Fold histone acetyltransferase.
Amino acid sequence: MARLKIVSQENLINGWLCALFDPPLREMTNQTSTPQTSLDPTSSSNLDTSNKRKALCRCVSMTNAEASAKVVSDSACCDTNTKEDIKEPLHKKLKQEVADDATADELQRSSTVPESVESSPTSKKIKIDISSYSHNGLNPNIAYVPLTSLDIPNSPMRSVVSCDYAGEQSDPDGTTNASTANSVLDKKQELQPKDVIATPIRSNLSSSIGLDAAAMFQATIDATSASKASSSAVSQEKLEREQNEALEQELQQITTDISKYPQHLQLHLKSLRIESSLQAMKPLLQKLLTHQHHNRRGTFNSPVDYIAWNLKDYLKICPNPMDLGAVKTKLYSNVYHSHIQVAKDIRLTFDNAMRYNPPKHPVHEAASALKAYFEEGYAHILAKSAPPLDPFYGLALPPVKHQCKTCNGQTCPLCNKGCRNLEPNLLICAGSACSGTKIRKNISYYCTPDGTKTWCQRCWPSLPAILPRDDDGDVLYKKDLIKRKNEEDVVERWIDCSKCTRSVHQMCAFVNEFVSDPSTFVCPLCMDSVIPPSVDGVKNETNSKEKKRVYSFVTGQELPEEVEDVNFGTVFDARTLEQCSISDFMELKVKQRMQAMDCPKGSEATVTIRVISDNEKEFGVPDVVLRHFRMAQEKDCRNGIKTFQEPPSSHQYRSKAVAMFQRIDGMDVMIFCMYVQEYEGADGKKRVYLAYIDSVDHFRPRRLRSAIYHEILAAYFATARARGFSTLHIWASPPSRGNSFVLWTHPHSQRTPTKERLQAWYHNVISHSINHGIITDVKSLYEESFEDFDKSSKAEDAIVSSTLQCPALLEGDFWIEEASRVYSSSQSRWSRSNNKKPSSDNELLDSEKNFLPHEAFKDPKSSSCPAIHVSVLLENCIMAHQDASPFLRPVNAAALKLKDYHDVIKNPMDLGTIFSQCMLGEYDTFQEIVEDLQLVFNNAMRYNPQGHPIHNLAKNMWDFVQKQLAILTKFWDTCGIIASDTELPDPLAPYYNVSMRLSSIIVSKENTQDQSTETKQSPSVAKFFSDDTRSKLLFEGPGGIAKLMAGEDTHLLTRRNTNKEIGKKKKKSKKRKESICEAINSDGIRRESWLSFEVLGSIRNNRSVIFVCHLEPKKTKSETEQMKLSDFQEYIKEFDVKGCPNLQGSNQEVKPKFKPSVQETRHGLLEFSQYGNLQFDTIRRAKYSTAMLLYYFKNPQADGVLPKCSDCKCCIENVRWHRINKSFDERRRSSQLLSLRTACFDMARKELCGDCYMKSHQKEDFYPIRVSFRAL
């Protein structure tokens, strides 16, 4: 029984028409048209189209010219509107006629006319003569059959369908009964898509046609009126038989010629080929799991609970239950051997739903629609491996291979795949509108010359002319930004075997491109080993006589198996990393948790946990924190000014990195990694900050992933408490979409968690730790450090006279990042200072426009900070003067065409800048402000000659400013500031040493008592939760923790639901508005603690995601808390505290020696992974990336740690200039521009240092990337 393959409708029409006409007319037939169908199947228009189809078929035996003329004449005779039809393009008309004819046949079959061939009006004889096409040289044993496709309901596209035909039903004269194909298509629910469009011709057909006919054949299909039940059974058996045959062919292709290799190499080759076969099914399955219309509630994502639904006959009707969740688990664990098995289980899921539920049931309809949706996507997957169609004839041709300058059309003998794409370097937009999102492909962007920041095309117009810098570097102008386009293509690199001369992927062969010598490389097939020979003197024990056997998960198997431990003792073995008591305890707890959850035998033996980094670090506290926050201790109190101690300018901590590895196919794969910071606080408290955590979706068994990650964190928290740490800080912040925290490039199916989902995940972690007695209390950062300041400042008799006391200093913590963000936005906002016009009703000025400080600061709640006094004077008096307009903003020399301005004026200054710096707390003393004010007017008088209007205005304004400053200093005398002795003639000189820090306050002469910020201290502030309520909520699980974090802001518990309505904008938070208003007093004067209030508002709005967990036991314990203390002692009893290093580095304790390498910092590891293309999106790449990282963990000084310049061969530091590579595929040659088609693209890596980049003649092909790690 031969098989007849039916292609899509569009290919059908092109196939019919392209087989009839010469090349000029064939090109016209490539265009598409929309078929218009008549509702009456017996109408004259449909009968006419049938005659026209006969005319099309008869044209095959004619010459090209005769065929064209014949079709035109027949069409003109059959159509009443001859003139209008002739005007219409011929190819569109012919395609329209065939489409109408097919639709008419379909409507005819659905009518009440009997299905017999004799009575069917659609029964026609189609004679096809292909003798004139034997010169094409096609295979005479291959039949190329264009037929109408199967129209699947609720489907926007057509499917590729297969059916069988019997050659014995062919008529003696070689004609074909067209109604038979329509009859077979009626059984469309049993037909399944296939990727083959050509099958062998039977001998009895070829005898009447002749073997010399190479292009087409005469096919005969006879309709039968067999019952639907019998045809369905036959189709089902045939489908199963075809699937089994295809699966056997697929498995044979995967396991071809690998039995002669050692077991570990067989595992490696099998895993590569199976993963390649399954990779395309993952995105399709993900679309089914998250379908918005037919699977919105996840109906098909979990098993049918027939017991809960009391479906007693479910197993009888559906003896093989299946769901998409089970398919996902097996697919992502690489349990399947081929995509055919995946498709079979997906179809089984929907077939079960349609078999058990009646046709009109919603579940039946949803399953039918999803199955049709799957068949469409699966047909596209199969079409990629099917032979393409000839654009002229619509016939199958030999496949066109991918061709580029990297692969040269080759196929890797290890994975049986050709060129593979990689992810280019990550580009993150630093603009406020994008909020750290990834810059999309083919979008222009702008970057700084040092590569530290990039802005997308959307955020670039809003940038100021002078860009704010995070450090104390040179001034950066907007005009100096480099414009580039994100169009880089990165592909996997190849290497040639010196023995068999075959090319293989470097990732498939575990080749380090920076260390390996290409001239001596031997591929694994010739070497009979996966592990390459040892490098750099590292011992390789794979050739030892005694081979150990260890448990490992294997691709294609669900349970772990014992395999040869060929990885033992090599540079790719994670077990040889340095051990310590922390990692040993964490690994022990993870294995115990896996055993307690009934994991398969040997699964716990595949896990390895190591501390991969443990080093002393120091971070510099940002200036914004130093100037706007204070410590509790007073620094001094002299000359009537009280100054509080500033936060330390730097902070010491110990950074640790913990990684979990799992053995898959005999190789270690990094699954999980976290970075923590351990602090020795100035107040004597030891704190732990969970800085970064990241994982990839490769852990097996998949059902244990979250539980194992929870256990890793809980075990580390327990070790921290045992070592004397009192608090644990967590900021639940997910990465931006497309970004990674530690492991570069996650699997495409692994979605970035939302803020709410990550928050709930941490609730489960904390709840698990509370159950073991590790965590004793949970608070938000707002409740821990900001609530007392917030509530005391709102009291009626509160006097806020200083800045907020500094919370715990942790590098990368939320409140520090938020303070820097608010500071930067305020700096750009206040640089465009308010240009106040003179007003006659200004209460702060007298009739002569002099400043009245007693009126400005008469309110007891007014600020007592000297810096705020000066800023009020500047804003309401000096900058509001009628002659101050030319001095409010920086001089725009380019707009005014002052070419020599910057040559004459070396230090530009303006009043707006002085005001913003005064409000931002950037001045230390009053003398600095006076000098900058004088600089403003001296610059104007220096550039403009005497007699110039600007020169005269500057002179008058400087006299006015001096007069107003003298009035302010007299007011300071009345407030209690004591002038210092000085010999300078300047009347302002005695006040030069007055502190302009925002944390400095004036001590009144009448009342020298402390009027610090905390007038209303914590004892008078009522707590929202009582101790009993807090203790009760603490043990209620994740729900109770969520209530504790939200506190009195209960709206945070339902925020996710309130913003779900479509079309409504998110309401702005009232809390933030209230906090900003608190920064301004009743007189409209901004307080010195304005930044503290704005940061406080952000902290309160995000209080539910910033955790402060207490590890110390409470002084007074309830009965439950006493039991939890015993549970903690039981949990931690196996931890060796003496063998663990602490912050003091006691000589009695063992301190592991970790070599500083690329894993020393989180951004360094991520940056190195991007440079070396070490991705974790597939298991194949994850194994290679883990092997390379392990190599550099053990060899920190090996080649490749630092990028080298391709020209001068020197190590590059600070900035590397990376060439933008653009791949070119020969398959798209006709669609590219002429300049692109003729170009030769070299995809080799090219990096330049700064000096070589300046010498390059093609600077537009390079863009800067920051290099953060340094030579050791």
User: Anything to note?
Assistant: DSSP finds 38 helices and 32 strands in the chain.
